[in-house]
């Protein structure tokens, strides 16, 4: 939230941006290979500082209120597209309520391979849990 409408480049005019920046920097210290894709910010965040700190995507370049689903759209596009390609905001800006006014960023390598592996792992875990519950309840699970 912008406290003083006059100076957009003063970090103290934003309620939470300094915490987002601190979190981004901590994540980048941990992620030396820059494989982590970071989306940071919230409505009316200090966009330029978030990108400078190392976020791939951030809100809100126009200092507007963003739709709650916009960050989810960005994450979904990165997670479900082939890992050999790069994604830019132009690839899905038409799906965002306010387009590039609400969210913008730099390109990022897509993560489908990681996403697919995680999905497969979760499905295996679910099957194990279902079987364990069935065993404890004496249910026939031969069809599973």
Features:
single chain, 144 residues, mainly alpha, 2 domains, three-stranded mixed β-sheet, 4 helices, 8% strand
Number of helices: 4
Beta-strand share of residues: 5-15%
Mean pLDDT, as a whole number? 80
Number of domains: 2
Structural class of the secondary structure composition?
A: mainly alpha
Give helix % range.
25-40%
| Overall body shape | elongated
- What strand order characterises the main sheet? 1-2-4
Task: Indicate the multimeric state.
Answer: single chain
Enumerate the spans where pLDDT stays under 50 for 5 or more consecutive residues. Answer: none
Biggest sheet architecture: 3 strands, mixed
What is the chain-wise order of helices and strands? HEHEHEEEH
Number of strands: 5
Alpha carbon gyration radius: 20 Å
Distance between the termini: 52 Å
